Amino acid sequence: MKNSIKVQRAIFDMTQADLAERIGVSRQTINAMEKNKYVPSTVLSLKIARLFKKPVEEIFFLEDED
């Protein structure tokens, strides 16, 4: 699963640490999600989407091989 977290952070002028603090995870978790090494839970995905005021499908999307 791919995501646009890094792009959304840039739009909102947030660091990984800022985002992590706002949604209650570690900066390392944000880093792993941005590198597509960690797939977040549904709850975490929804928190991120709500924070960025976007539908979850605009932040997280499946690739053909997923």
Task: Describe it.
There is one protein chain. α2 (16-23) packs across α3. With 66 residues, the chain is mainly α. It has a two-stranded antiparallel ribbon with strand order 1-2. The protein has helices at residues 5-11, 16-23, 27-34, 42-51, 56-59; strands at residues 2-3, 60-61. The protein is built from 5 helices and 2 strands, in the order βαααααβ. Helices cover 56% and strands 6% of the residues.
Notable characteristics:
single chain; mainly alpha; 66 residues; 56% helix; two-stranded antiparallel sheet
Describe, in short, the structure shown.
The protein has 66 residues and is mainly alpha-helical. It has five helices and two strands; from the N terminus they run βαααααβ. It has a two-stranded antiparallel ribbon.
Strand order in the largest sheet:
1-2
- Overall SS class: mainly alpha
What's the order of the H and E elements? EHHHHHE
Sheet with the most strands, sense and barrel status: 2 strands, antiparallel
Shape: globular
Q: Cα distance, first to last residue?
A: 6 Å
Low-confidence stretches: none
Helix content: 55-70%
**Total helical segments:** 5
Strand content: 5-15%
* Radius of gyration, taken over Cα atoms and rounded to an integer in Å: 11 Å
| Count of extended strands | 2
